[in-house]
From TrEMBL:
Gene3D superfamilies: NAD(P)-binding Rossmann-like Domain, UDP-galactose 4-epimerase, domain 1. PANTHER family: NMRA-LIKE DOMAIN-CONTAINING PROTEIN, PINORESINOL REDUCTASE-RELATED. One of its GO terms (biological process) is (+)-pinoresinol catabolic process. This is (+)-lariciresinol reductase. One of its GO terms (molecular function) is pinoresinol reductase activity. Residues 11-274 form the NmrA-like domain. It comes from Salix udensis. It comes from the Eukaryota. Dimer.
Length: 292
């Protein structure tokens, strides 16, 4: 590394990423390194049995990342980790069908408070405009209350600046044509949710990571919610379907699902799947992402 490059890195914030081997976390690590930040990746002691994640961590290390062992169940290890950096980006999983680790973030907030040196915390995306996100039964309200509690608790850290990132929908939603439970688009049939005309915002995961890292040293984002809303990425479900039909040169068979039918089908699912389906409901039936 040249003296100029070393000097530029010293001017940039040091970044710690938790959940760095996850779906979005690995992209954040790549973006942070690519933009010249001294990057630290927190990993759990028990990760040694997961060969793919170990290989990913070693790859990060070869690219210049610092690997820091720590656990959300070991408060001191978290405190030691956050003392190394200026910025903490939390990317631990909130994907309900795989795991549910939202409450673990509260332990991270407590560690940051004890360490006292972190300047910026970027927690995972909060629900779009929580006040406007209507509760379905008590199920979704419970989950969103947890997220709201996290934000409220972290805001009590007077020394700490925040950047709440709202990423809208990951690109996987558009890739599956907004079909719950699918990640590959059908070449035969698609279910239209409601009218199919409500707009949503679809953002590539690598772009989300890039914008997040760009924002951590931008004073305009501090104590703000950063919305990633590329104008050309604001599309309805029918828009997405038409793009796919044009690509494959074929018109799909279509059927419609009313909001009543969708809600009735949710009652047959377990808690984790119900929460995920609730997101589809608010986005595709109510258009909440473009009514903020």
């Amino acid at each position: 590394m040249s003296e100029r490059e070393r000097g530029q890195m010293e001017m940039k914030s040091k970044v710690l990423i938790t959940g760095g081997t996850g779906y979005l976390g690995k992209r954040l690590v790549k973006a942070s390194l690519g933009q010249g930040h001294e990057t630290y990746v927190l990993y759990r002691p028990e990760i040694g049995v997961d060969i793919e994640k170990v290989q990913m961590l070693l790859s990060f290390k070869k690219q210049g990342a610092h690997l820091v062992q720590g656990s959300f169940n070991d408060r001191q290890s978290l405190v030691n980790a956050v003392r190394l950096v200026d910025v903490v980006i939390c990317a631990i999983s909130g994907v309900h069908i795989r795991s549910h680790q939202i409450l673990l973030q509260l332990k991270l907030v407590d560690a940051i408070k004890e360490a006292g040196n972190v300047k910026v915390l970027c927690p995972p995306s909060l629900a779009p405009t929580l006040q406007k996100w209507r509760t379905l039964w008590n199920l979704d309200g419970l989950h969103l209350t947890i997220k709201w509690w996290l934000g409220k608790r972290s805001k009590k850290l007077e020394f700490l600046l925040h950047m709440f990132l709202q990423t809208a929908l990951l690109d996987t939603f558009s890739e599956a044509l907004c079909q719950p439970g699918h990640i590959i688009p059908s070449r035969e049939h698609v279910s239209i949710l409601g009218s199919g005309e409500e707009k949503a915002i679809y953002v590539d995961e690598d772009d989300i990571a890039t914008y997040t890292i760009m924002a951590v040293d931008d004073p305009r984002t501090l104590n703000k919610t950063l919305y990633i809303m590329p104008p050309r990425n604001i599309l309805s479900q029918r828009d997405v379907v038409q793009i796919w039909e044009k690509l494959i040169g074929k018109e799909l068979r279509k059927s419609s699902i009313s909001s009543e039918e969708f809600l009735a089908s949710m009652r047959e699912q377990d808690y984790a799947e119900q929460v995920g389906l609730t997101h589809y409901y608010h986005v595709c039936f109510e258009g909440c992402l473009t009514k903020i």
